[in-house]
Amino acid sequence: MGNLVNPLKQALKRGELQVGLWCSLGSSISTEVVAGSGFDWLLIDAEHSPNDFLSVLAQHQAAGAFDCEVVVRIPGNDPVTIKRYLDIGIRSLMFPNVQSVEEARAIVSATRYAPEGIRGFSVSQRANQYGRVKGYHARATEEIFLALQIETGVAVKAAKDIAAIDGVDAIFVGPGDLSADLGAMGNPLAGHVQEAINSVVSIKEGVSTGILAPRSDDARRYIEWGARMVAVGSDLGLLVNAADSLAAQFKSAS
C-alpha cells in the first residue's frame, strides 16, 4: 500500500526477469513468511485455493511490509468480482483461461473507470488509502497490472492477438490446463505441449510472457525462450517436499 508505483509492472516493461512464488495455503502467516524471502512477486491463488476476499486482503496486508508485488489470481472475469478486488487494494491481477480477444477486452474494460471502461466508482476504499491518495482515480490505470492466462489450444492460437490488446500487460501460460486440453493431461513436457508453450512465451509483441514452472530446469528453459514473469514454486510445494523429506529421513533411520 505504501508504494504507489507498481514495481512488477515497471520491471517487466524494462524486460527484467521477475521471479515469483505461488501462494495456495490461504494463510496470512505463510504468505508473510515467503514475502520476506526475496521473490519479486507472489501469486495469491483465489481460483484453485480456499481463498476469499477477506483471506486475500489479510495476505496482502501481511506481505505489505516487504518489497514484493502481490498478484491475485481471481476465479474468473466477472466485473463485480474484479471491482471488489481492485477496491480492496489489489492492483495486480491474473485471470485464468482467457481464450479470445473479446474476453481480454472485457477484462481490461472492467478494470478501467469510465469513459475507458466500466469499473464502478467509489470515493473511498483501501485502494486509495481510504481517500488519502489524491488523484487516485485519474491515474489508477497507470499502476494496474493485468496478466491473462493461456490454457487451451484455442487460446494458444489467439495468444498474439490477445497480447496486442491495450491494457494487457502479460500473458501467462498455465501448463497444467494446457497439457490437459492438448490431450497430455499432467504432462506439460510432452513435445507438442512444449511447442505450444514455446509459441506463447516467445511472443515479443510489446507484452511480457510468463509461466508457472516449479522444476528449475523447466524454469530456466522458459526463461531462455523469453519468459520474464516466472513462478518457480509454491508455498504448498515447499511445505510438502520439506515435510516428506524430513519424515523420510527419520523413518529410514528407524
UniProtKB/TrEMBL annotation:
Q: What is this protein called?
A: HpcH/HpaI aldolase/citrate lyase family protein
Record flagged with keyword Transmembrane: no
A Pfam short name: HpcH_HpaI
Q: What does the UniProt keyword field contain?
A: Lyase, Metal-binding
Keyword presence, Phosphoprotein: no
**One Gene Ontology term of the molecular function aspect:** lyase activity
Q: Which organism is it from?
A: Rhizobium calliandrae
PANTHER family per the record? 2-KETO-3-DEOXY-L-RHAMNONATE ALDOLASE, 5-KETO-4-DEOXY-D-GLUCARATE ALDOLASE
Q: Which InterPro entries match?
A: Aldolase/citrate-lyase_domain, HpcH-HpaI_aldolase, Pyrv/PenolPyrv_kinase-like_dom, Pyrv_kinase-like_dom_sf
Q: Tell me which stretches of the chain form a coiled coil.
A: none
Write down the chemical reaction(s) this protein catalyses.
Answer: D-glyceraldehyde + pyruvate = 2-dehydro-3-deoxy-L-galactonate
Start and end residues of each HpcH/HpaI aldolase/citrate lyase domain: 18-242
